[in-house]
Design brief:
Oligomer: single chain
Strand content: under 5%
Low-confidence stretches: 105-116, 213-220
Structural class: mainly alpha
Order of helices and strands: HHHHHHHHHH
Distance between the termini: 33 Å
Shape: globular
Radius of gyration: 19 Å
Mean pLDDT: 81
Largest sheet: none
């Protein structure tokens, strides 16, 4: 099953997608493209931490396959090993740093800044907007709508292939808790219809959270 999914995804892959200046979630999984791309042509995607979209595995794949060693990228990996959740034991997180994600999901406290090195996404953005409004810090969801509204629902990332259930739950929550929800009646209606459709056809499953948590979000 996993190999079938791998072949399906790679069938639509073109190296030029990574060689351009456009940021894409493919950068976070560069290790999947060893032997399929020229790693020297993706060096421009290194961020201010000298990581590949805050992914230790993608950064390691880059270092192992580029023609010129990057000391700063090596230092990033050393920091991940010593400062990440493994604390030098050998365990390495899938993303580092991830302070906004951890804050909004673990303690439900948000600030208005996107994690450095990570692509903006509807999920974390909606959670941050929701929490700041609940904390009495007025935050408009207009950019959230402008950036991620799709034809029938809100996408987590631009260009993703899956219909994100939990992300739309969070988008709806953020819109309903905005200062003036009627201003976003169109997006609210769109997301609500999408969630109801997914529920009614028995597709209330999600790629980000376990099934039980996803249905709980809808029920709440």
């Amino acid at each position: 099953m996993l190999m079938d999914m791998n072949r399906s995804k790679l069938a639509n892959f073109h190296p030029e997608n990574l060689y351009s200046q456009r940021k894409t979630t493919l950068i976070h999984s560069l290790e999947a493209f060893v032997g399929k791309i020229d790693f020297d042509k993706v060096a421009h995607h290194l961020d201010q931490h000298e990581s590949m979209l805050a992914s230790p595995s993608a950064t390691a794949a880059y270092l192992m396959n580029c023609s010129k060693w990057n000391d700063s990228a090596e230092n990033y990996l050393r920091n991940v090993i010593h400062l990440g959740s493994g604390k030098g034991t050998g365990g390495v997180p899938s993303a580092f740093p991830s302070s906004i994600f951890e804050t909004t999901w673990s303690t439900s406290v948000a600030n208005g800044n996107q994690d450095s090195g990570l692509l903006a996404d509807a999920d974390d953005t909606a959670k941050a907007i929701l929490m700041t409004n609940l904390l009495g810090l007025p935050t408009s969801p207009s950019r959230l709508v402008d950036e991620f509204e799709a034809e029938q629902f809100s996408g987590t990332y631009k260009g993703e292939r899956n219909e994100p259930l939990s992300a739309n739950c969070h988008v709806l929550d953020a819109l309903l808790h905005s200062l003036n929800p009627p201003d976003y009646l169109g997006p609210i209606t769109k997301v609500t219809r999408f969630l109801c459709k997914m529920w009614n056809v028995g597709r209330a499953q999600d790629k980000w959270v376990r099934f039980g948590y996803g249905t709980g979000q809808i029920n709440n």
